[in-house]
Design a protein that fits this description.
The complex is a heterodimer of chains A (about 375) and B (about 300). By secondary structure, chain A is mainly alpha-helical. Chain A has 14 helices and 4 strands. Classes of the chains: A mainly alpha (about 375), B alpha/beta (about 300).
Chain lengths: ~375, ~300
């Protein structure tokens, strides 16, 4: 016990003496939350479009007005020729061309099928899909209005759907994003700092001096992991505090559960970091391996793209992805107010994971070289 | 009872043999030196003896404890100072010492007597980070840290490499004092001139011991008369002597060449005459006593012939 205390004490002196450390601890949460939540958004606003209105009637103008008055579309140019529109698409001045043919009003008034055309830049498929949805919605709303005003026939039977969005009623993007970013934050601290730390001792040779001491394996490993475990929990708390203060995110579930699950999750991440440090000799190697796993875990973890939209093999992979589990847990607890029963599967998986990782790295860590 | 007993100890890295079937023993209380060039196997041997490296074959025991089986107990009894400075550069002098004392379950105060002579020299800088110390002071701190748990045997791997001449001399005096306090000191060095400071030495090359004895006895094994030769043009002198049919060995030492002859009976004038016919000018010749390096070269040559 005494030895562990001295190891931890030494570790903390080193952490706080490291000039790069405090900016990481306090800067990273704030910067990640501010930048990622605001920039990495799925919302599409201000789509610039090129207008070709060959009709030039009240009806066509009304339709255009529907587009321009929405917050999603901004007209950037207008012409009567298709070529001009194409040019603007190519030069990225416009992302969409709205093409209204000459007999648009006539068709609308005659209750025939009427046509308009969207040409959308689909380099980014996601954005193109969203653009199309928004544009279609606008046209749909426009059509409904006209139908009720002009149609003299009986109103066709309609099914009215009432939506009710649960857990995030305002479809607030930040609410969805922040739990995931907090997870990313905790993971990075855990994985990189713990992994780097032991390799650093190898690199500068201090491990040699430690190895000739009678420090026991478990003492060394606890002494190495505990400081970063505490640091990870602290950063999570700090991140939550910033998120609450700036974005006023909901914290529906219990804080105890948030930190309890974080405690288990951090053991997994620290275990992975420790394992990486036992199989590498330099900080550079450790950094690359840690990055490799970090990128895969993050991209497949459902932080940016929903896991449900991945192919089934990728979905199966998430079983071994601790980040995916923890993002689900954090979203569940923070947004839905999940209790331990709701996330028991993830808790069990992460607990098993933590035991496996710790065992592996303890077995792998050697005080004697072959 | 010997402090170190080694039998047929072997360590290989792939195809390279670092330690080649070594057998030797070191008595308690000795100041024992391993002398040999870089890559001779000194560090591998030290790492095996300090339980950091597993041997491939053979046995080694330190203080009657097997380095493989009893490593746990052994670690509390030995002190090791690796060749590379391996203390925490971002911790202060005092913090380093305190840390190593505490992981050995002791305190600075408890064993202060042992390190006092050394530590007082760096104590004025005890708040300074270890990374900011000069080379000599780093060595003193490393030695203090290796001694803080009062080891019975101390291993120092090339402690004087990269240290200035004055600090080197001081350092050897410290080692002498430690020996007088009853600690067995085992040290390795590539500097031949440090051999005479040890009680006994082992000359080591390519993982093998070429000779093991007191420095004086090692010098006595040198059985040929040794000549130091100098001329205006050293290069021409080397060429001429290499061609000389009676030449046995020739090694440059500073401005002189150390020369031995194959013949048992010969006179220096004969060589002088030969060199004169070879147009060598300003010839200077004198018989000298061999030093450890001469012995090392001779033993190495002998080994190569075998």
């Amino acid at each position: 016990m005494r030895t562990i205390r001295f190891l931890i004490q030494k570790e903390f002196i080193q952490i706080f003496r490291n000039k790069g450390m405090l900016p990481i601890i306090f800067g990273m949460p704030i910067i990640q939350l501010l930048i990622l939540t605001n920039a990495a958004t799925f919302d599409l606003r201000n789509v610039q479009f090129h207008l070709i209105d060959r009709d030039q009637t009240t009806t066509s103008r009304k339709l255009v007005e529907k587009f321009t008055s929405s917050e999603y579309f901004i007209p950037v140019a207008q012409s009567f020729s298709d070529e001009k529109g194409e040019e603007n698409l190519k030069s990225n001045r416009a992302r969409m061309v709205l093409n209204i043919p000459g007999n648009f009003e006539k068709e609308v008034l005659s209750n025939k099928v009427s046509h308009i055309q969207f040409i959308i830049n689909a380099e980014d498929g996601n954005a193109a899909g969203l653009t199309q949805t928004y544009a279609s919605n606008i046209v749909h709303a426009f059509a409904m209005e006209y139908q009720s005003v002009w149609s003299s026939v009986d109103n066709p039977k309609q099914i009215k759907i009432d939506y009710s969005f649960w857990y995030n009623p305002e479809l607030n993007y930040e609410t969805y994003m922040i739990p995931g970013i907090l997870v990313a934050l905790v993971s990075m601290i855990g994985l990189f700092l713990s992994g780097m730390n032991i390799v650093r001792e190898k690199e500068i040779g201090t491990i040699e001096q430690l190895n000739v001491t009678p420090i026991k394996k478990h003492e060394f490993i606890i002494g190495k992991l505990l400081p970063f475990w505490l640091l990870g929990l602290f950063i999570l708390g700090f991140g939550l505090f910033v998120a609450k203060l700036i974005f006023n995110i909901p914290i529906m579930g219990s804080l105890w559960l948030i930190f309890g699950t974080a405690a288990v999750y951090l053991i997994v991440v620290l275990g992975i970091g420790l394992f990486i440090s036992t199989v590498t000799d330099t900080q550079q190697q450790a950094m690359f391996i840690a990055w490799f796993f970090m990128v895969i875990f993050m991209l497949l973890g459902g932080l940016f793209t929903p896991i449900e939209s991945m192919p089934s093999w990728a979905q199966n992979l998430t079983v071994v992805n601790p980040i995916a589990h923890y993002i689900q847990m954090m979203r569940g607890i923070l947004i839905k107010g999940a209790v331990i029963g709701d996330i028991s599967f993830q808790v069990i998986v992460l607990s098993l994971y933590s035991i496996i990782m710790l065992t592996l790295s303890v077995l792998r860590y050697r005080k004697v070289n072959d | 009872m010997p402090a170190i007993v080694v039998k047929n100890l072997t360590k290989k890295y792939g195809g390279v043999i670092a330690v080649n079937a070594l057998t030797f023993s070191v008595e308690k209380g000795e100041l024992f030196g391993f002398i040999g060039p870089d890559g001779a196997g000194k560090t591998s041997l030290f790492r095996i003896l300090t339980t950091l490296l597993l041997p491939d074959a053979g046995e080694a025991s330190v203080n009657n404890l097997d380095v493989v089986k009893d490593y746990k107990k052994l670690r509390t009894q030995l002190g090791y100072m690796p060749g590379r400075f391996s203390l925490y550069q971002d911790l202060s002098v005092e913090e380093n010492l305190k840390f190593f004392a505490s992981v050995f379950g002791t305190t600075i105060e408890e064993n202060y007597d042992l390190i006092k002579d050394i530590y007082v020299q760096i104590e004025p800088f005890k708040k300074r980070r270890a990374g900011q110390l000069s080379g000599g002071m780093k060595q003193k701190l490393a030695l203090s840290c290796a001694l803080i748990h009062k080891p019975e045997i101390l291993f120092l791997d090339e402690p004087t490499t990269g240290v200035d001449a004055v600090s080197r001399k001081e350092f050897w005096e410290m080692l002498k004092r430690l020996q007088q306090k009853g600690i067995t000191v085992v040290v390795s060095t590539p500097y031949m001139d440090e051999a005479s400071l040890c009680g006994r030495i082992a000359l080591i090359q390519n993982g093998k011991i070429l000779g093991i004895d007191t420095p004086n006895n090692i010098v006595k094994t040198f059985d040929k008369p040794l000549l130091a030769v100098k001329a205006r043009n050293t290069h021409a002198l080397i060429e001429a002597l290499r061609k000389y049919p009676h030449m046995h060995s020739l090694y440059p030492f500073g401005e002189f060449l150390h020369y031995t002859d194959k013949r048992v009976q010969f006179s220096n004038d004969e060589i002088h005459d030969y060199l004169t016919t070879e147009m060598i000018q300003q010839i200077e010749m004198k018989p000298i006593e061999p030093n450890i390096e001469d012995c090392f070269m001779a033993l190495m040559e002998k080994q190569d012939h075998e």
